[in-house]
Write a structure and sequence with these properties.
The chain has 799 residues and is of the alpha+beta class. It has 13 helices and 52 strands. A hairpin with a 3-residue loop joins strand 7 and strand 8. Helix 7 crosses helix 8 and helix 10 packs parallel to helix 11. It starts with a helix and ends with a strand.
Length: 799
Amino acid sequence: MNIQERYCFHLAKTQQNHLIFASRDEDVKAHFFILEEGIFRVLFEKQTGLEVGKTWSIAPGQDDLPHRGRDRFSTEHFSLPGYTLSEDEQSFAIQTRQLKAVIQKEGFRIDWYHTTHGQWQLFAQDRQTQAYNFNGELGQELKHYLKRDIQEQYYGLGERSGHLNHHHRRYRNITIDAMGYDAEHSDPLYKHIPFYITRKPEQAFSYGLFYDNLAPGYFDMGRELDNYHGLYRYFEAESGDLDYYMIAGPHMRDVVTSYTWMTGNTALPPKWSIGYSGSTMSYTDAPNAQEQVWEFIEQCEKHDILCDSFQLSSGYTSIDGKRYVFNWNTQKFPDAKKLSADFKRKGIRLAANIKPALLTDHPQYAKLESLGYFLKDESGNTELAQFWDGGGAHVDFTNEGAYTWWKEEVTRQLLEYGIETTWNDNNEYEIWSKGTQADGFGARLPFTRIRALFPLLMMKASFEAQTTYASEKRPFLISRSGAPGMHRYVQTWTGDNRTEWKTIKFNNKTGIGLSLSGVYNFGHDVGGFAGPKPDSELFIRWVQNGIFHPRFTIHSWNEDATVNEPWMYNEAVAPIRQLIKLRSRLTPYWYSAFYKAHVHHEPILKPTFFDFEEDTRTWLENDDFLVGESLLVASVVEPGVSTRDVYAPEHPGGWFDFYTGRFIAGGTQATLDAPHHQTPLLVKAGAIIPTNEASRTFANKDEDQRGFLLFPPRGANGISRYTHYEDDGETSHWRTAHALVELQMHTSEDAIHVTTDVISNGYRLPYESAIFILATGDTRTLYINGEEKPKSNEVTASL
């Protein structure tokens, strides 16, 4: 009997939308799930059962999952649509109205079809020369091979270096501390997100593949060639289970929002987290750390730099220069509780760095080892690994006691000090021994099978501590490493980048890759973390870019011990001040975008093709990106320039220069001024941009005056709509206490009509009127809710 004959499958059992196929010898089961009209799932199970019986990734439309995970066979929260099943001599066909899978009985090879104009069209195929590694015929790893078309484009894969289109590259799927990485070439980086999107240009069709597997592995997107198999690509994992989801488009937007919904809701952060967050390793490493941290606030006040939070690097935990999590160095910080209170009095929240490993001379090491709270080697002893300043042991978050201990320490050593935010750092879990074991919540598991789970459980334990301690407050957390589902809990950043011009360019693409992989709340270390300090021009351009990311933090560990600060260059202070105030002015726009990310699973930062898919020029590699519904950011990514060429995507109403109101036709190239105090920025015609028009200074950071920038399209019969979201910005009651301001703008040849409708859901707006600003210099008569307004670019009107 040859391999193909042995692995000939028959339908063994049907359980509603769960079909179970078995191989001839019944040593392999193939579970097939029809979850949504456009989402099917394939799970292979050996005779010995699943290696990992739970998932921590799948949470359809949910905010959270139990820390023990979700049963891998559960279909809860999926709609489970009707489907048809047919069989002939060679195959099975399973279809909904949108998606069809034709499964060959021999080898369980699948051909995938989508409907277009009432016809089924083939869009993906398993490799015909064996697609799966059922019994070690293709090596020891799990593998899934698909046919590859040379025209296909591959996007996503989480946090990756280089260009957006990943065709012809090979990536290692593992978390690693990639200090000072090259944003163009380095791989792997900090996150484990085994999801990617394939675009078929000739069909204008996109689909996604998500592999629910937490073990290290690879994605080969066409780098490997083998004459015996034709063109192919493949997923590989060291262990665990082959469990994958096929997500049909047809559009890129459909795939991204479906995948993000499937892995859970994006956390809605408190409004203060949108502001500038100060940080550097230098302050907390200094002997007089508390003085230096406070001096940062004094400098912000002196230079009128708006700042809403500050991140305490791990130096606050030091003993003789080494880091010891949950330990306060009282010589550096003689009164940390007072520091926290003083910062809050200035309107600034503190975030404290925590790490998931304890050095062997940590004050609590012996206690935790005696309780069995660390990961263990195959002999049952504590597994030691290199960590920062020497050998250390990693907390086993699959041990109930260790999970509880972590929450208690977060509460005792941070939250009770008045620190509201945890910064979960160095949580890549770099343990390389194949024999390392995890408690597995009482069912011991090899660490490798669930390696990427540990940063997720670390942030979830911190999240639970924060929500328990201050149930009225909306939790806010930061994490460097992570896995699918991390967006339910944390904000992230792309780790310890290197200071050089190309980092801005390629970090933009890394961030867009995260957006296309369901992680929307992210940013980059502005100014560069490692390497030389940025010169003045590079620093300013980096700030220009950084203010248009969901996370805006200037953070550094420069080789010459300098610190990236807004005032590090005299000539840079004024433009940086102005740039940060622009971000502050746009806070309401950012906040509404976060709300829509949570409710509609819409990315906040997007590639231009996301909203303009039919414009073929947007698919070319470029340095631009969209923020929210209406803004197009054209970052300056090279030195010595004073203008920036930008392509305005095809849009019937065209675009406007944000600063001058100059009209730019869609589908054309434009040259924008790029002075130091302005990020080159286009606005889509028809846009309504909510703003804070208060003249905020450091002393009155909380002042708020709602404004709406209007960018009416030229000509008649232009209609646009915008939904603005409001709540108290901080508490956990936002689901039952918020308001929506529905705005509509209609243009005729001689008038602009704006109407507003306030929908209150248990929350009363703190304002009854707003400032409406015609940002394009339009001379047509403006009507607000039917009332004619005087000829002016700026008017106040009741809502």
